Amino acid sequence: MSVIKSAKTVEEAVKLALNELTADISDVDVKVIEKPKSGFLGFGSKDALVEVTLKDEKRKDIKENKDSIEETCCKDEVFVKSDDLKKIEDFLKDLILKMGVDGEITSDEDEEAVNLYINKSDDFKALIGKSGETLESIQYIVSIFARRHTSLEKRVFLDINGYKKRKEESIREMAMIFAKKSIRYKKVMRLRPMNAYERRIVHSTLHNMKGVFTASEGEEPHRKVVIKPKF
């Protein structure tokens, strides 16, 4: 898990990232993408831009777990799982066991989706994979099972230890940072190669932003989002 932050100084940007990750400096690797520049008479100044990555994907976000526990304890309604939902849970449990990984699975439903969560596991990293690719593959397999073997017609959403939520927030923030740079410097900004899920997040984040438009270029697995200023 990594986040990208900007601030007046590298130290301030790193501190913002550590707060979001709920981590100490010893738990992360820091990459300085851009060093700050003071400019001249206030012109041409640039904030520092850093990427901070957790060294261990297994590390839990204490704050999110605490909030989750408090929310669960305070619920007045009792959620009764349907037979179909239990069937999907059992299939997911069996699937990850065949991958050699054990985990605690919870689930719920809303109007749009069946939501599955793997909250405890002996190997989060194996289930998530590089850039979340294994996680997306597991979700796809479970979606096929749900369509073929249950009466549920909703989409399937799978998250592991809050990974997707944190990753989406990080990608949206990165997209906004580079979009503002594109507008400010009237330059085309090319992001790092991303999978289809990550590219969709960037496109949706900047879809209604004035001054820029986005496009994807290149071939998989090196396909990336390009942010272009509108003249």
3D architecture notes:
By secondary structure, this protein is an alpha+beta fold. The protein folds into three domains: 2-54, 2-Layer Sandwich (Defensin A-like); 82-161, 2-Layer Sandwich (GMP Synthetase, Chain A, domain 3), CATH 3.30.300.20; 165-229, R3H-like domain (Ribosomal Protein S8, Chain: A, domain 1, 2-Layer Sandwich). It is built from seven helices and nine strands; from the N terminus they run E-H-E-E-H-H-E-E-H-H-E-H-E-H-E-E. The strands form three sheets. Strands 1-3-2 form a three-stranded antiparallel beta sheet. A three-stranded mixed beta sheet has the order 4-5-6. It has a three-stranded antiparallel beta sheet with strand order 7-9-8. A hairpin with a 3-residue loop joins strand 4 (103-109) and strand 5 (113-121). Helix 3 crosses helix 5. The two termini are 36 Å apart. The model is unreliable at 57-63 and 72-80 (pLDDT under 50).
Secondary-structure map:
Layout: E1 2-7, H1 10-21, E2 28-34, E3 48-54, H2 62-74, H3 83-98, E4 103-109, E5 113-121, H4 124-128, H5 133-149, E6 155-160, H6 163-185, E7 189-190, H7 196-206, E8 212-217, E9 224-229
Parallel strand pairs: 5-6
Antiparallel strand pairs: 1-3, 2-3, 4-5, 7-9, 8-9
Helix pairs in contact: 3-5, 6-7
Keywords: Cell shape, Cell wall biogenesis/degradation, Chaperone, Cytoplasm, RNA-binding
Pfam families: Jag_N, KH_KhpA-B, R3H
Subcellular location: Cytoplasm
